Amino acid sequence: MAEKMKIYGFGFDPQESQHHFLVIIPRSSDGKVIIYERFNWQEDREIQTIDYTADRPKVELPKYKWKLIEDALKDEFNSRLKKEKLPAGKWKTGQVPVQRLLGKEMVLLAWAIEDCDPSVIPTAIKNWLGLSPEERWWLFTMTNAATGGLKDKRGWRKAVRYALTENPVEETHKQIDFFDLLITRKIDD
């Protein structure tokens, strides 16, 4: 009889791939949430030990900022896990593993808000949700290649923040309104 697969956190199956992201959520409200990219899963351990030589810290967020994005992440990921007939995940204090592709998307959103004013986080979420998973993966890959370390807050990392925290929808509406005005004017002439 085939062994039943064990899914951890948000869609992480170590039998499929050891590559995953590990979100560490502190108990204290003034603590920092740290997200690591990892390539090894310690099967025999309930609590994973961070290997500071191999596990890569990607982003660190104040817990209050994490709380502003965690529901959007949970809803998006669980919607997709449901389509794959996988169990839903939930955020909890301690360690939460995230499947590698979902983890890339999560880190992208976290990078966008790490240094922004909290008032623009709803805009970042809206713009992040407006991207397809493939677009999020591509943006993560490009940003990670250039500025993927914990303290790398320049270049692509800054560009991601501006791209997601500023609302391009309003600019698009202004362009459409301008073009509508031109079309209407030509029809009326």
Overview of this protein structure:
This protein has a 4-stranded antiparallel beta sheet with strand order 3-2-1-4. It is globular. The protein is α+β, with helices and mostly antiparallel strands and 189 residues long. α1 packs antiparallel against α2 (100-113), α1 (63-83) runs parallel beside α3 and α3 (121-129) packs across α5 (156-165). The protein starts with 19 loop residues before the first strand and ends with a helix. β1 (20-25) and β2 form a beta hairpin. It has one domain (20-188). The protein has 6 helices and 4 strands; from the N terminus they run βββαβααααα. Mean pLDDT is 89; it is low at 171-189.
Which structural traits does this protein have?
6 helices, four-stranded antiparallel sheet, disordered C terminus, alpha+beta, 189 residues
Helix proportion: 40-55%
Q: Count the strands?
A: 4
Order of helices and strands: EEEHEHHHHH
For the biggest β-sheet, the strand order reads: 3-2-1-4
Tell me the major beta sheet: 4 strands, antiparallel
Outline, from the CA principal axes? globular
What Rg, in angstroms, do the CA atoms define? 19 Å
Low-confidence stretches: 171-189
Distance between the termini: 77 Å
In DSSP terms (H or I, runs of 4 or more residues), the helix count works out at: 6
Strand content: 5-15%
Structural class: alpha+beta
Break the fold down into its secondary structure elements and pairings.
Blueprint lengths: L19 E6 L6 E7 L17 E7 H21 L10 E6 H14 L7 H9 L3 H15 L8 H10 L2 H21 L1
Antiparallel strand pairs: 1-2, 1-4, 2-3
